[in-house]
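Ticket #4471: structure export looks truncated?
Reporter: QA, pipeline team
Priority: medium

Steps to reproduce: submit the single chain below to the structure queue and open the exported record.
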Amino acid sequence: MNIFTTSWGDLGLTRFPEDPRDRLRAWDASDEYLLRHLEGETLAGTVAVVGDRWGALATALAAHRPVQISDSYLTQRATRANLARNRTAAETEGVRLLSTRDTPPDRIDVLLVRVPKSLALLEDQLQRLAPRLTRDTLVVGTGMVTEIHTSTLRLFERIVGPTRTSLAVKKARLIHCTPDPDRTGPAAAAAAEETWPRTYTLPDGIGAMSGRPVTNHAGIFCADRLDIGTRFLLEHLPGRRGPLRVVDLGCGNGVVGTAMAVADPEAEVVFTDESYQAVASAEATFRANAGPSARAAFVVGDALSGTERESVDLVLNNPPFHTHRALTDGTAWRMFTGARGALRPGGELWVIGNRHLGYHVKLRRIFGGCETVASNPKFVVLRAVKRG
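Actual output as written to the record:
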């Protein structure tokens, strides 16, 4: 745990899941910059915090009863833990945690935006929130210099109103935006159009999913095309069939789990991801392709932490190797160890990854061995079996 010093008190903050070996902080210079700026502002009415990474902003501003809007289950868990650690029960109860799939507040008087990695997710959220803004709404964005581009500013300008940036401090910037009544409030509600979700058709040559539709909500990786790593896994899916319980772990748009459901109508497929947008995408993809008798569950959560031990026959996984912009192998470790616990004896974990990530080393330590199913110059498909 690290101490974050703010005008609202010294806060002991951690990421989620908490790991004493993790040296990454639960805030960065952009959070610091935004909170210093807010010291001179009146935060009256409904305060909405969008994209708060680990709850640093919501925890600092708890006395103002903010509404946090996040696509991340892990962010929500971190926020709850940080609030409980630093705030009274009354302050904690005043903070509302919403996902990006939930209906936002009817009116927003202060909008604070931590710029996300995905420009599409930023666009989607600004469009959803613009009808809730008034001409007097205080709108401030924040991010590291490397996260704020001309395209970022153009989105604020196009959707909300006139936009300018601050000077850089500790490699962070603020975005100041003035709501334009012709673009926000009732005008935005009248002109609203559905930009997301988007659907594309898969190419031929990938087995049961050839020519089938895939749906993506904003913020999903490769929202307009099939990425080459997933395609490689689809070309080498397990041949096991029967009444299997299959988990698409870190499911994204659900194309891998859906491929198993199409190929094996007897299977039950669990789609799980820590992103609310991803699980919504996976459900849409599954519904568009699987038959009426196909069985599936859709779970937003932390890897396989909520899965009953030894209840799964097959886990399919394309693990991320970053958390926001920080490179880390922590997520892969949690996914692999969680898969081993969830698998029945003889159950299999199939992993697709870049060759240079060396997942085979981790799998051998966790499972006692693994084998290469397929490889090319960039990717490798690995199979690990739970023994006994």
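Status: closed, not a bug. The export was complete when the record was re-opened. Leaving a note from the reviewer for reference: The radius of gyration is 22 Å.
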